[in-house]
Amino acid sequence: MPAPDFASTSWPSAAAIRPVLFARGLRDFGDGLVAVLLPAYLLALGFGAAEVGAVATIALLGSALMTLGVGVIGTRSDPRLLLLLAALLMAATGFGFAAAATFAAIAAVALVGTVNPSAGSVSVFAPLEQSLLTAASKDARRTAVFARYSLVGALAAAMGALAASGPDALASAGVPELTALRWAFLLYAALGLGCFLAYLAISPHPAAARGKRHAALGPSRGIVVRLAKLFSVDSFAGGLAVQSLLALWLFQRFDLSLAQAGLFFFWSGVLSAFSFPVAAWLATRIGLVNTMVWTHIPSSLALIGAVLAPNVEVALGLLLLRAALSQMDVPTRTSYVMAVVTPAERTAAASFTAVPRSLAAAASPAFAGAIFAAGYQALPFIACGVLKILYDLALLAAFRHVKPPEER
Fold first, then answer.
1. Could you say which of 187, 310, 366, 386 has the lowest number of CB atoms within 10 Å?
2. Architecture (CATH level 2) of domain 221-403
3. pTM of the full predicted structure?
4. 6-209 has which CATH code?
């Protein structure tokens, strides 16, 4: 019995795209909500900064392990079934956090649950959804579909972060703070049930196309390994300029207020989100790899220029330019990975390129913080820009002749 070949059957149909996008919006709203509220909840329970950091690390590690597991078993399982189980796990995670009171219980829920403290790290849902979207999309439309997928997620996460002010509003109305925070996690559970209902709308994969054990990665193993290595360099570089460190630099370098910084990062997020459909349009004209590279390099130069800028107006202008360009590789990168591997390897490829990228991004902020604290505030951002440019040139050299189907 052959491995599942989603491209050779009528499953899934294009009708599967809408439920996946709807579920992405629900769960990213939840991720944006809990990424802000999780530290406040732990502090309200009486834990300190060390416990907050430990829970965040445990949650990221658990997500990475589950994503790797999905990459292995997803090659011989119905993605719809795995998504339904993941949605139920999301609901259970919300209920678990709302009920847990001891650190051991919270750590256990964080390890086996779906809570995402970074609101953008690796997710157990992502490789399954990406495989489904690729199978349901024609080659010429695949990048545009992933642009919509990224746009929905970015806007939903931003709205979730805004909704994190809800417990404060309830507390001011007389609801105990801890109760209000627990209600937020119950909302997270309800969003998981909403995802479950959305995934029910996807038709099951025909049983005849499933069941045989085979390697998660086969003929595309070399491509996936090379991409994972390059993406890890890019993510390590990105971790040198995380948003919290950039905000700290703006506070210290230009004495920006919290309100001014919040407004700036809001518009940065808006520009990043709406760059996704532009990236899809550009990819149809110059190709996926060229779009990744030739939008990324100017964004890196803008970052370097911003930290060397003589005044706040120039610095913020260059940082907004960077925001408009730096995320255009998100939908194009996903589309490219899905296009250059065989259909049976898509779930594994999405998983095995996402997890190293996430772990690499988690490793570099500590280095950047140490450099920043030593008095070299501009150095992490310059290093970020230089490393990203080197990554882009290496990606271009290694993959400029590896074309997705629509470019052949």
1. 310
2. Up-down Bundle (1.20)
3. 0.82
4. 1.20.1250.20
